[in-house]
Each structure stands twice: as structure tokens, then as C-alpha cells.
From TrEMBL, chains A, B, C, D, E, F:
This is Ribonuclease PH. NCBIfam families: RNasePH (TIGR01966). It comes from Idiomarina aquatica. Gene3D superfamilies: GHMP Kinase, N-terminal domain. The keyword tRNA-binding applies. The lineage of its organism: Bacteria, Pseudomonadati, Pseudomonadota, Gammaproteobacteria, Alteromonadales.
Length: 237, 237, 237, 237, 237, 237
């Protein structure tokens, strides 16, 4: 029995609020239960130096947790003077995942930055960030098309992500914090709407995991991501 | 005629939402029109080194704008590796203002940190931060009393703050961004509910301002702060 | 009775030594009693990036205290790897104040940097910095005119600054350290020679201050700044 | 046909040189073809602050590439003043993988640091680091046992890691740089000698990858890791 | 013929002003012609961690040039966020040289910090710093003895330093900036009053220098340092 | 009797391995007994900004010790976020020494960077770095000539360096760590093959050293450097 009473495959209630703030070209508040992440997409002309003159665009991401989004307060990274390893790892994952949504050639020499700021954390912040940022990205793309900044729609397909894991020996989907903190294995999966993988990251927290466990984790992730993509599409409809 | 149709002394609609997030001991979303700041108060045992063993508490503050809280995206300070001068100036002001609310001896050797994170900016973020942080501080104090962490109520009185300025030659209250960006003089005032000053900061943006202009700015600030303190009290009722 | 035997409105002996060092285009040692600040003005061609091509100049400032300018040694900011919040706040104030002296259009695309380095501190270092930097700025302007770098004199009017405060319940001018450390209210005022305000910053250190106290602080500041401007003019004569 | 003439499943010649340097408690030079990583294990008394008093040890790792280990010179991270995101991601992966080898309780309050410095890079540096660091860790453990620093052998089982990927549509093992740079999918797998997973990280570089592709990558990884563990054991024999 | 009309061995007029500022335990302004360095000595209880409990004291130094001590303005190191290599090299040299003056055991567990801040630079700032810091150190030692902080005088002997070099093929003493910038060889020598060496650093700027040139540089350095020690002693008399 | 049984003037066995890694234009592993330094030379088009358009090249150097190249582990400078003073001092010395080898005009607007990474330390790492880097520099120059990047050979002459010192009252050459740690005086000498000085740095570690001691140290350094230059030439033959 899970703390929330959910079944093993059941994800938390997911809410997607578009236009949550008014300045960003795409602004989405995504909630997976008590995990709340504000995903803002910014469109800027130009690309990083290493891409100049290649006729393609770029997608980058930044991730941060508000100091008191967590049970106890974490030090603000701006005050520490550097971003931690976990932050860097996550923002690289978000950016890679969202780049996979787009035909970067069709984006032209423009950059879209996805700022994922966790307002409240209860497990699964990186996968919520990817899932919300994808919707913000679509809004930003629509903005660009409406302004005539791009001719062709660069969106290839939607992506969504879920955190799955083995808790008390059982594979479960969409771990909340209390489950995450005692999971034996933790796996983040990013998939496209066509059901293909963008990223799969499984980590043994305590004991190593078997081939069969890996298989069943992937299986429930596929199932949950399909649900998430439906929710994204409803939000965008 | 002001862009919003407000009279010179009229402040924007102010909304105070308590318990906006679930982990912080005090969590307030304050909105002054389109300016939205999340003010989280964290209670921690102990005091900074310079106060150790003196039997008193401390209040500190951190301020940050989400990168896309503004019209164009600003670089994330955590990514730049340092907080800018404006950020430091503002968080020092917030902390000084809130320390003035409390009898630090009655707080015991505890520290309250006020994190003011601007979700959306439209002028007056520092004064909204002070006004919202004061409510979060009261909630944190109430939490401490309910847990028996302090015996005596350390709250001396409420404080609130307003930004006033001279726009097109006329003194007006609660400037929104479009006014702020062309104000000739800008003044931030922090006052107590008893109508005394905690802080007054007037700055000539273009031309120097006269004694009479200074007087009329102070006058409308007093008036607006009285209103704000009523709103704070209703929110806490 | 003040520690120095001065009357409430009496400022300390002020000495202005021009050409204190030989390389800078303006170099002023200003002394307010035992507070000694070296103010060097540097003229450089060009402006910061955000002003390029706008046909106007810029004035910026940096402030620092020598590690042992104070009673006990402070850590050197270069060794800590960053400037503190107080330093940033002060150098932003100095720069804003001095920009108010000049018609930046008349300055052309040139930048003047004011380096204010405190050799010895005894209260009022930021206001001494502004007062001394204004004289160094005039010398730098004169240098530019003598070299034909600018045609029109960009100087609008002189500015000077004073620290006033309430000590033992009485408003006094030009606080020295021993007074400053126990002041109930502290106010820094920057004014032009025409008697208008550039900046006014009043802070309650302990108790909040009343409207009447604010008024009397402003009054003695006006009086002292008039004196300072006479001293500046004599030094420049 | 692979550039090196290898079959799809064939790994490069792997050489493990123990005691490569003389000061470290474990010092291994591992070579996967032209990829050469020096893995030094350091034993130190005590644990990081968050573990103090819990009666368990810790394993941590640092990773760095010599500036000219690559085709073109990369800037030295010490000179840039910070470690990049890729470095942080890799050193976190190495540490997690090696912690999985040990019973941290049996290690006592001691810390083992694994420094993996890439002398020459030709693809697969992170997986070579893990495979080499495991041997250095065993030597460090043996040192501790010979000095009586620990009573019980904390080693649970060996781990090794391999990089696999899809190149020209075919799953291949142990990618060298020229293959890695054009791989469609890249997967790093860390496994125990019992054939269980410690970590699996698959990333679509261009197109998303299918379930079947994922399966075949895992399959060849298992095969290669078994070979690597045999090589580790021979080296330790 | 030297630019100043000096003979090859002739040093510039040297002035030593003690008690230049009032807070430091030793405060010396030293001038070698137009080179002016403020050397402040601070006495603090305790020693750095690596010396704790060894019953000996420590001497450390920091060096900085005011941004406009030079012909053109240099960026402030505190603003850059780090001290440059030249600064570090110089402050290490100053500290080593001054430690050689003292019996560190006799100093007890106290630390003396020598802050050498260059107010105006015209060549030879590091050797002027050492020569001035030695006088400030003696004043600090005298302060400690007068306060009873130490029983025995830890001063072994005075040290002084000079910059010598080969300019236009001729060895000369105490190079001013215009000579230094075209010197073929530059040598800094630190000696004790007994005529022994603490440090000798000779650098070929253009062509390598011969054994005979090295000898003649050392010879004139010995001569000049003897003069400097007489000047130090007169200042202290 | 020296710990190694060597005579006073005898240097350790020196081994020079060229092409130690495959990417760098010059790659040398130099060993002085147990001191092992990898010296990689990188050729890049262009020069630092301060040299642009002057038709000359540049040589720069970076130095680092692997964390566990020493008896106990040192913190990695990339993790600390800055290079220490010793590192900066050494890399400046290496660069100055190697610039002395070349006619920078003949190098054209190209930059050669010498990365000296200490794999194992046993005294004399900076002088081993210079001696090894000179060989790597020659290989890089040969590479440039073979590729037609330069017409004329910019190499003026070889340089080599040795560490000498006074240990137990006797001047000895090529100190290993155990001698270095108890040396009374330590001197690093860099010379050209023509027997002239590039750099001489003598430091009293405990007692000041006499003129005669200085002379005898220089004498044995000259002798050892002659040997080293023969070894360099054999390696290059």
C-alpha cells in the first residue's frame, strides 16, 4: 500500500496551468501532486558562439529549487556562488530532452531557454520540469510562429518524463518524496509521444537491480508517460 | 492620468495568500497588481557566529528575481556565480526592515530567514517583499509559539513598505513598471503601524528633487502604508 | 555634549588635498576629522556596452576600505573573492550621486571612474567619498577640457554629502565612529549646490523615527552640505 | 565494419597497471585502447559532516581531463575557477558506482577518495574511470586491512562499466571517440560481477531509440562487463 | 646617464613616516621617490590552523595596488573576484621575508598581518613594501611588548630589500618605472642587517644574463640595502 | 651522506619520454628520480589580446599537481574554485623561462601553451617542468615547421633548470623531497645552453645565507644544468 493510497502504476493528479506569468513567451505551472514547478520559456534571437553561422537554433535549460521548496531550507546557490552538481546534472538533462522535441534547423538561429524553478518539492522535480517545459516550449513555438519569426513548425513530437522506482520491492510510478527517500532503485525515463526513448537513467540506491526489475520499471514508465502526454495535449487543446 | 487609471494616491489591488507553499513556517504570496512575490519564512535554531552567546535572535533575508519575472530575461545569479549589487542592496533593506518588527531578545537564539522570490515583476518588488515578508514573519512567530519554541511574543509592531515617486511632475503612489521607468524621483518608504519610519530612501533619477517634493512624497507614502497595514491585518485575521 | 566637543550642527574640520597622487586625472585626499579617503578619477575613452552608440558618457565608482582602516582588521575583499553587500551598496550610491553632477550627453562617449579608497575610517566614509569624488571629478573634467577631449563643460553643479543622525535623542551632524555606533537613526543626504536632493537615505538603527525627527535631520544636513560646498569651492579656487 | 576493425561486441585491448604512482593507497593506470586514465585512491580518517557519528564510511570521487588529453586543448577548470557540468555529472556517477561496491558500515568512519585523471582521451573515459577506480579501491581496501584500519572486508563485489551505443544503426560496444561523435544513441552501463545493474544511462543523441534498441544495448553491455570483470580479477590476482 | 640624473648605485630619496594611520599597531608610509606604499601591521591573537598548538607565531602579508596607483587604471581585484598571479607572488615574498626577521617561537601564538597597499607606483613596489613593512613590524612588536603580550623580543634583525637591474647594459640600483620597463635584467634582493641573503630573485627580461652581470647586481644591491637599513634605523630611533 | 647515496653534485637519473600522449603537438614525460611530470605543448593560432597585431607570438604555461601526486592528498584546485599562490608563481616562472628560448617574432601570431601536470612529486617539480617543457616546445616547433606554419626556426637555445640547496650545511644538487623539506636554503636556477641565466631564485628557509653559500649554490647549479642540457639533446637526437 502506497502512502497516498495510489496503485503501483497510478500517477499523482497532474495539473498544467498555462500563462502562469505574463512576460515569458511560454509560462507553465506544472503540479504533480505537491510538486510544483514553474517552467518559463524565453525566446531570444541568436545562438551560442559554438553554433554561430550554422543556420540552426538551440534549446537550453536552467533549473533551480527555491531555498524553501524543501522540508528544510537549502542554501541559495546564488549566495554560495555556484550551482551544485545535482543542479547542473538536472539542467543538462532537461535541455537534452527538450532539444529532442525540435528540428533545430527549422528553429533558425534562435535560442529558447527553459527556466524550471521549483516552488514546492515533493519528489520528481526533474521529470515534472521536463513535462512542463515541453508545454511551455510549444507555447513559445506558437508565439514565434504568430510573430512570423519562423516559417515551419520545428516541433517534431511532444516529450514527457516520469520517475519510477522500486519501493519495498515493488516497482511503482511517480514517487513522492517519502517513497523516493527509501527507494531501492530510482529510474527517470524521458519518452516521446511515439513511445521511443530520449533518456533512461536508472540508479541503484542501495542494492543493485536485476534485469527483470529494470524491465518492469521501463514498462510502468511507458504507461505513465502515455498518460502524461495526453494531459499535455489536453492542456494545449 | 496614470496608465492604470488610478488616482495619484491610489495603490494597486493587493492580495495576500498565506500558506502558499507547504514546507515553510510562513509562506505568503503577495501581489501588488502584476507584481507577485513569494515570501517564505524559515525558522532555524541558532544564530550567526557574531551573535553567539548573546541570548538574542536574528532575522535575515534573501531576495531574487526569477530570470523571466521581467520583460526580458535576466541572467540567473547562481549561473553568473554571484549576486549583483542591486540584489544585495535589496536583501539588506528587507532584513533591516523586518528586524525592526521584533524584539530580538524575545526571539531567543533562533534565526528567521525571509526568502523573497519575485515570480513576476511590475514595479515595487522590494516594497512588496517587505510587506509580504512581514506577514510570513508573523506566521513563523505563531508557529514558534505554538511549538513552545518561544514564550513571549517578540512582535513589536507590523511594518509595511511602499514605493512612491514623481512621474510627469506629480507625486504618485505604488508605481508600476511603466511609471517607474520614467519617474524623475523614486522613493521607498518603510513604516511601522504606529506611523514611524524604519527606512526612507529617496533617489533623484534625473533632476534633483526639492524639499517640497520630498515632503509630498513622504505624505502619500504614509497614507498608502496605513492602507497596507490594514490589508496585512485582514489577511492575518 | 558630543565626544569631540562639537555643537550638534558642527561638522569636523574638513581638508581637501588635490593632486594627492600623480597618475590620476583627478586625485583628491579628503579628510573629515580622522576619516581619510583617497578619491581618484580616471578618464577612459568609451562607454559600457549597454550605452554604446548613444552619444553619451558614463560615470561609475568603486569603493573599498583598506583592511586596517578600521579599529580591527577586516578581511580584504580581493582575498575573499567578492565584494560585500555594504561595498556594493556604497559604490552604487557614489556613482548615482556623481552622475547627477553631469550632463552625460556633454561628456561624449567617455567614462569617468571614481575610485574611493578609505585609508582611515572614523565614520561617514561614504559621504566623505561623495564629497571628495566630486572635486576629483571636476579636476578630471578640467583635464578633459584642457586636452580638447570635450568641448562643452558637462558639469551641471557640485554635489556634497553628509551623514547626520540622532544620538542620545538629539539630531547631530557629521557623526564620528563613536557616535555612529550608538546612533538611533542614521541618515545620509546628498545635495546639489542649489540645495536640492540627489539622495536621502534614513535608517532606524534601533527604534523607528518620527516625522519630526526626520524633518530636523534633513534640516541640519542642508546646513552642513552648504558648508561642504563652500569648502569644495575654496579647494578648487 | 568498425574503424578499428573490431566486431560489434568486441572491446578494445584493456590494460590495468597497478601501483602506477607511489604515494596513493591504490594507484591504477587503466587503458581502453588509447583512452588512458590514472585512478588514485586515497584513504583518509573521518567522514564528511553529514555522516559524522553514524559509524559508517564514505566513498567520493573527482574526475578531470588534462587540458590536452583531447584533440584540441580544453581550458583548465582550475583556471576557469569552476568545474563544468559534465565533470560534476561524471564524478557523481563514479562515486555512486563505487559506493555500491562496499558495505559502508564495514568501512568504519573512513573516507576513500577516488581521483580519476584522464591522461589521454579516446572515448569512454567515464566508464574506464569506474572500471579502473574499482581496482584502485580494492588496493586501498587491502592497504587498510594490512594496516589494521578495518577488521572486516567491506568489499561486496567488483563493479565495472562500459559505454555502448548505436552507430550507423548497429549496436556496438566500447565506442572510441570517432564512433562516439557520430553515435545515434549512447549508453553507459555499470554492473556488478553478479550481473546486476548499478547504473544505466541511455541518451538519444539524435533520434529517439526504440525499446528493442535499448534491449540490445543492454545485452552487449552485460557481455562486455563480464569480460572487464575478468580483466580486473586477473590484474588483482 | 639615468633619467633622474642619479649615479648607477644611487637610490632615490627614501622617506619613512611612522604612525601614518591611527588604528594599526604599526603603520608606515614608505616612499622611494614617487613610489608610495602604506604598510600596516595588525596584531591578532591566534595562529592559522596548520600551526595550532605548536607554541609559535606567524607572519603573513597581503599586497595590493590601488587601481589608479599606475599610469593607466588596472581593474580592482576585489571586483574581478580574484587576486592575480603577480599579487600572490609578491605577497608570498613579503611574508617570507618578514618571517625571517623574527624568532617565531618568541612571538607566541600570535599572528602579525602586514598589509602593503600601493598608493602610487613608480617601480620597486615590492621591495619598498618589504622595507616599509619591516619598520611597521618593529612598531607592532613594540606595541606587543608594551602591552605585555610577549616577554622576549622576537626581532632577530632588520631586513630591507632593493630592486636592481641592468639598463642599457649597466647595472643600476633602485629602478624607477621608466628604467624598469626597459631593463634587460631585473633582480630583487632581500637582505638582513648582517649582510646575509633572505631572498634573491633575478630574471632575464630579454637576453639571458651572465655570471659577471649577476655578481655586479648582487654587489650594488648589498650596498643599497646597507643604506636602507640605516634609514630604517633612523626612522625608528 | 645523502639519503639516496648520491654525491653533493650528483643529480638523480633523468628520463625523457617523447610522444607520451598522442594529441599534443609536443608531449614529454620527464622523470627526475621519482618526480614525474607530463609536459604537453599545444600550438594554437592567434595571440592574447594585449599582443594582437604586433606580429609576434606568445608562450604561456599552466602547472598543476594531481591531488595524490603528493604524500597526502591535496585539494583539487578546480574543486576549490581557484589556483593557489604557489601554482600561479610556478606557472609564471615556467612561462617566463620558456619564452626566453624563442625569438617571439619568428613564431608569428601563434601561441604555444605548456601544460605541466605533476603525476608524482618527489621534489623539484618546477625545475623538472621547465626542463621537460623545453623538449616539448622543441617538438611543437618542429611540428609547426613540418606543417609550414612558420618559416624560420624561432628556437634560440635550449634551457634547463635545477633545484639546488643547502642541506645539513652542505650545498647539494637536485634535492629530493626529504632533503627539500629540511633544506636551510633553496635555490632554483634556470640557464641556457650557453651558460647564461634566465632566472635565479634563492630563498632562505630558516637562516639567512651568506654570499659564499650563494656562490657555491650557483656553481653546482651551472654544472647540473649542463648535464641536463646534454640529456635533453640526446632525447631530441
Amino acid at each position: 500500500m502506497r502512502p497516498s493510497g495510489r496503485t503501483a502504476q497510478q500517477i499523482r493528479p497532474v495539473t498544467i496551468t498555462r500563462n502562469f506569468t505574463k512576460h515569458a513567451e511560454g509560462s507553465v505551472l506544472i503540479e504533480f501532486g505537491d510538486t510544483k514547478v514553474l517552467c518559463n520559456a524565453t525566446v531570444e534571437t541568436g545562438v551560442p558562439r559554438f553554433l554561430k553561422g550554422q543556420g540552426q537554433g538551440w534549446v537550453t535549460a536552467e533549473y533551480s529549487m527555491l531555498p524553501r521548496s524543501t522540508h528544510t531550507r537549502s542554501q541559495r546557490e546564488a549566495a554560495r556562488g555556484k550551482q551544485g552538481g545535482r543542479t547542473m546534472e538536472i539542467q543538462r538533462l532537461i535541455a537534452r530532452s527538450l532539444r529532442a522535441c525540435l528540428d533545430l534547423k527549422a528553429l533558425g538561429e534562435n535560442t529558447i531557454t527553459l527556466d524550471c524553478d521549483v516552488l514546492q518539492a515533493d519528489g520528481g522535480t526533474r521529470t515534472a520540469s521536463i513535462t512542463g517545459a515541453c508545454v511551455a516550449l510549444v507555447d513559445a513555438i506558437n508565439y514565434m510562429r504568430s510573430k512570423g519569426l519562423i516559417k515551419v513548425n520545428p516541433l517534431k513530437e511532444m516529450v514527457a518524463a516520469i520517475s519510477v522506482g522500486i519501493v519495498n520491492g515493488e516497482p511503482v510510478s511517480d514517487l513522492e518524496y517519502i517513497e523516493d527517500s527509501k527507494a531501492e532503485t530510482d529510474m527517470n525515463v524521458v519518452m516521446t509521444e511515439a513511445g521511443k526513448f530520449i533518456e533512461i537513467q536508472g540508479t541503484a540506491e542501495g542494492e543493485a537491480f536485476s534485469y527483470d526489475e529494470m524491465q518492469s520499471l521501463v514498462e510502468i514508465a511507458r504507461h505513465s508517460i502515455k498518460e502524461l502526454i495526453d494531459i499535455q495535449k489536453s492542456a494545449l487543446a
